[in-house]
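ESCALATION

Customer reports they have been waiting on this structure for their group meeting. Please prioritize. Original submission:
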Amino acid sequence: MQAFVSKLFATISTIKASYAELQMAQFSNHNIEAIQSADQVVVDELRTLSEVKNSFLKKQIKSSPPHVTFLLTEIQEQHSHMKMYEITIKNLEAQIEVKKEELSALQENLRETTLINKAHAQRLNSGGRFSILDNIVLSSSSNPRDFILVLQYAMKSVREFINILVNRMEIAKWDIDIAVNAIQPNFQFSNRTQKWFAFESFVCQEMFKNFDTPGFSLQNGQCIPYYIDQFTKLKSANATHFFNQYPNSSFGKFTRSKYLQLIHPKMEASFYGNLNQRKLVNSWGCPETTFFAVFAEMARRVWILHCLAFTYNQEVSVFEVKKNCMFSEMYMVSVTSEVFLAGNDEVTVGFMVVPGFKIGKMVVQSKIYLAAAKI
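Update from on-call: job pushed to the front of the queue and completed.
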């Protein structure tokens, strides 16, 4: 009986292996001959299994001597296992080929995306037109999507200016920790890299001051067509070229005013050893330095955002978030997630990084650096 049971299990193993081979033939290469061959093996083994069943029911079990039967069934079992391994290997090889094709497609997509990004970067660095500005629809009704896109566009240049500002500080042997502490006194950051947000807060505070006043309070109120014209002219302009050519324009006055307010004389003197650049800007000249070019580009983008806001013909306001205020998802968004990941139930505002905006009923959240609430 043990020899019979052994033969039964060996036959079942053969059927399983043959059926797996049939499936492989059907779903992999659709080879008709392979399908027919595998199908015939399954049929033969099922017939053998049926014969074994009938012989058992009729109690007419005939077999070789037990030791021979055990040896034959062991060989059959091993053969079935080998066939299953071969099928598994073929299946894995087929999956590898599919993954290779997917990888090749992804690499091609990556190459295309990289080329597109390089093209955008070249257009940005040359002061050329940025694609998102081409899609902005100027109308009297506020469009949150357009405003947020241009705000992101402006913030990118803010961070680029901060990068060159901090680089100048390091070259001039400034103590960055002391500079950060002067902006946010005695503030504890989660890690050193996040001290960058202190500089972003410092620059944004000055660049967005009087944003909600027509022309940043540098001129009398203008009508909507004026801001549409400003947006159209400056969205594709080179910032330094425009400033050099039209220093007394609204944008020229804005750039000059913000530079003199943001860049302290002692700061410039430590960077360059003199105040020549400041004197040139103050006399409506245009310094031919990378530092000023990056600043002017930042000013251009903030000015464009300002002009866009005033094309909406709705009340424009900027709201600031005070330190130690409770966090509100409606009006604020955190620039980091550490305070949430630390499991703090209550969090407060550590300091404001970017102010929030309200245009009519539209609210654009302020970006803030969070801290755990003090109990």
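Sent to customer with the following note: The CA atoms of residues 24 and 91 lie 8 Å apart.
Escalation resolved.
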